[in-house]
Write a structure and sequence with these properties.
The protein is α/β, with parallel strands linked by helices. The chain has 8 helices and 6 strands, in the order H-H-E-E-E-H-E-E-E-H-H-H-H-H. The protein folds into 2 domains: about 200 residues; about 50 residues, no CATH class.
Length: about 280
């Protein structure tokens, strides 16, 4: 077997990452379940009760957006559009500490995507943009189930910019009584709590059906294998860079000892161009 080929062994995965144990807090499975337009509408209605949910016509999951060829793009877990709004919903399992700046990047790309649409003639037509992160942790440590951010004037907090950009963080482990019963049922479901809520029952059924989908399981495994390959490539690149730095350090010491560049080249395999940089 080619030693450079990575074989993915599902049995080596942590229990919570195995397909049969995944729940809705997994971003891949979340995206697959939310392909169901009615489930997506109901979830957004619970998060954004004032948005005209019936006007949401389509759902895209794992949608990729990039501003330009040479810029960093993003992949949205759930991306949907209504008549006057675009909504991105992300299932964020890990607290990486830079979520606020990540939402800024999402808003930028959503704005660029909206401005590329034929329906936008002037800035007046720019739709409202909602970026929503669903977290099984408290991103700000204040105990809230929901944190909603808009742009306000620093000198006059009653003055809102009204630029249409809204960022929401949902915390499944909140302790305050600050959301509707319906939204609380969904957030509790992410932490493993059962409910008689009809929407939660539908989600449970959708999850059970999703786990039976062999095509989705293969896709999930391929994504994990791709991630593992990237990690391995990074490790190999890091080792190579480490060896190169060690060779430079050896070359410096050999030069200090009075060895010629020819001898140093043979000892370290560094090029003569590299040696001229010492």
């Amino acid at each position: 077997m080619d030693k450079n080929v990575i074989v993915f062994d599902e049995s080596l995965l942590p229990s919570e990452q195995r397909w049969e144990n995944l729940n809705l807090s997994n971003d891949f499975l979340f995206g697959k379940v939310m392909q169901d337009l009615e489930l997506c509408r109901e979830l957004i209605h619970r998060i954004l009760p004032d948005v005209e949910i019936d006007r949401i016509r389509f759902v895209e999951t794992q949608k990729s957006l990039q501003a330009a060829i040479d810029t960093r793009g993003v992949r949205f877990d759930l991306y949907t559009r209504g008549d006057s709004e675009v909504i991105d919903v992300e299932m964020q399992a890990l607290n990486r500490g830079y979520l606020p700046k990540r939402t800024r990047g999402y808003h930028i790309l959503m704005g660029i995507d909206a401005m590329n649409k034929e329906t936008m003639k002037t800035y007046k037509d720019l739709p409202r943009a909602f970026v929503i992160f669903i977290c099984p942790f408290d991103p700000f440590g204040r105990g809230r189930h929901i944190y909603t951010f808009r742009n306000f004037c620093c000198e006059d907090k009653d003055l809102e910019l009204n630029d249409g950009a809204v960022t929401i963080f949902l915390n499944a482990k909140g302790t305050m009584d600050d959301v509707s019963h319906e939204l609380r049922a969904f957030l509790d479901f992410l932490t493993g709590k059962t409910s008689d809520d009809p929407f939660i029952k539908k989600l449970e059924e959708a999850l059970n059906e999703a786990r039976k989908n062999s095509s989705w399981r293969r896709e999930y495994m391929m994504l994990l294998m791709r991630d593992q390959e990237k990690i391995e490539e990074g490790r190999i690149a890091g080792l190579a860079e480490g060896r190169r730095e060690a060779n430079f350090e050896t070359a410096r010491r050999l030069r200090d000892m009075g060895m010629t560049d020819s001898d140093i080249h043979r000892a370290t395999n560094l090029s003569f161009e590299d040696l001229r940089k010492l």
